[in-house]
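Supplementary Note 3. Input sequence used for the single-chain structure prediction.
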Amino acid sequence: MNSIRRIDSGIVREALFDVAGTRRIEAAATGAAGPFALMTCAGDAVARLALALAPHARRILVFAGPGNNGGDGIEAATRLCEMGRQATVLLHADPARLPADAARAFARATQAGVRIAVASVSNLQEHEAPDFIVDALLGVGASRAPQAEIAAAIEQMAKLAARGAGVLAVDTPSGLDVDRGQPFGRACVVAGDTLSLLTLKSGLFTSQGRDYAGRVWLDTLGVDISGESANAWLVGRGDMHRRSDKRRQAQHKGSFGDVAVVGGAAGMTGAAILAGSAAHAAGAGRVFVDLLDADDASNAFDPLRPELMFRNAWWQGPVEALRASTVVCGCGGGEAVRAALPRLLSVAPRLVLDADALNAIAADTALQAMTSARAARSLQTILTPHPLEAARLLGRSADQIQADRLAAAVEMAERYAAVVVLKGSGSVIAAPGDRPRINATGNAALATAGTGDVLAGWIGGRWLPDAQAFDVATRGVIEHGAAAEPERPGALRAGDLVEALYRQSRGVIGA
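The predicted structure, written as discrete structure tokens, is reproduced below.
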């Protein structure tokens, strides 16, 4: 197990590769190591991880497909039998048409006495229920929805898993697009664990990929990929760099900047207050809350967070104040936020745009032009859309955004010359001209009203004048997700999330 690593939210930055990059690395490694060398290593790795995950399993069933992914599974079955386990292979392919390395694995397994059955729909039911399953049907080369007997095999795996068998996917759950994190069709393996071979694949960590892949492990098979060009990065708690938060004794509240939250139209004031509370918890020296459509915001008061300072029409105040502040705009802003946007886009040096601010920009070409022009004037911008808001910004559907989250985030970053945080499972952080980042922290407990407002405010509170937007957004997203860990049943209320973030930032155990 020494070469196998668990990839979880505690990681320091890890390189992610698409299928084309993985294929390039595989071809170079095969040329250097020779035929069958990588498959030997892969089969051994799968067998060792299977035993580590299910040390008491007696019957292990390997579903093997027609390519080299199937060969990895067959080689794993041979190793499992050598280790004293009863491993059976259901081969969903014609043995005479296997590629060279897989054919060699098949010959080795046959010679070693491994039980191999050429599978069909009719004989899927003939085998005794296994304790553990290895999914080696389809690898990263798959490009369409599983058909016929492969789809039937995936359905059979699901039935066996429902009866208690663990599932380990080899390289990728069969039926998953590992570039995009979406199943190709209705048939897709839901794995408890996935052993990614050679490289980590982007789609295992965003969109639906996290649900299908389960826990992800990596074995590079002895290949050094450190010099390879990744297409994205996976970031986690190891990237938070808490030591940078240490305050010097002579510093004062003015040392940590002002944050202004512009939002909270009538009936939605809670969104702005949540963002303001998060900004203050993140370390902002002072936080002003400008409630839009409020009759007299100057008399507003939050008894739970009395340190928040409410201001009428703050966005219309002295330009010097705007130029000295980080502004979070849009949280609960409603239609009223549209009037504030032109001035904020023109003046604010650091601007986080969320929720209704994004909707207003999506509906107004003039505001779009103002947003994309900010970078040329050395004004930094962070957009924090959820998939539907992203769809509006790009003029397409939310399903199209989710179908390729990495590409959508990169396109938004380029179009609006801004850092983009595309929220959701495996949030994507993108910046113009840079490789995107996928966040490994967080879970479905964050799927509740107000947590997006907390994220916008937290990023604003972390954004000091000398900090770069891409790094600020990345750190904010990581911390926001980490505050929801470990996952507990039910939703995490947004107000409780602010407190969890505050405790976490102070290094309190159990945050």
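The mean pLDDT is 92. Residues 238-244+252-505 form a domain with the UDP-N-acetylmuramoyl-L-alanine:D-glutamate ligase fold (CATH 3.40.1190.20).
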